[in-house]
Amino acid sequence: AVESEDPAEEPERRARGCRPQFQRTGLRVLAHFVAHPLDGGRHLSYLPGPEWLLDVTHLVAARTRVQDPRVASLEEGAVVVGREPGVTSVEVRSPLSDSILGEQTLVVSEEKVTVTELRAQVVAGLSLSLRTQLDHPAVVTATARGTPTLRVLKQEATLSVWLSFSDHTLAPLELYGWHDVALTVTSLDRAVATVGGSPGVPASHPWVVAEGPGRGALLQLSLHPPDPCRRGRHRAAALATGTAWL
């Protein structure tokens, strides 16, 4: 935590996350899609096959909870936030009987980790590819990928930013909220690209504008605590840095 220079600012700074935070993780709930036989038998038909799982996170969000909210909490049914060291579980309960339909053990460790690097990709557009499954000809898999190339002047692109931790895990910056961190993006060649925004998009969300031809690791990223937490000797210290290629 950063030492306060003004006691009156302490409540605001604490509310803005000026203390070390526990890691967060996204939550996905997967389930088999099955059909029961008409004759009442026990043989189930898995659709399209037993190796396939359906993402039902949004369908069961209202029935998903952390067994011990002192250890962790669940935000919007999809983000698990550590609160204190301990062991608990994430449960999905039946809306009819309140019985547990599925659960997963969750451990919040005392081990401290740090953000070691920012990994970022310029997303100027999307490419879509389709392919069929050899063992399931009726199934078509669609894959979308971000493309980093800005092809015309004044074309805009956003940045996909991930946090790399010292425990060798990755997490998208969005999991931690744009209000709990300050991300600075600087262009190393303003003749090629500038960093700005777009109407209705907060300044904390990076936005890149093409200004001329060029390529390379031209964007410098720095992650800082929110402004109320930056005081005195800690003001200029970055939590992590990284570059982005375009």
UniProtKB/TrEMBL annotation:
GO cellular component: endoplasmic reticulum
Domain of life, per lineage: Eukaryota
Ranges for domain Transmembrane protein TMEM132 sixth: 114-231
Domain Transmembrane protein TMEM132 fifth: 3-113
Listed InterPro entries: Ig_TMEM132_5th, Ig_TMEM132_6th, TMEM132
Pfam family, one: Ig_TMEM132_6th
UniProt name for this protein: T132A protein
Organism: Oreocharis arfaki (tit berrypecker)
Record lineage: Eukaryota, Metazoa, Chordata, Craniata, Vertebrata
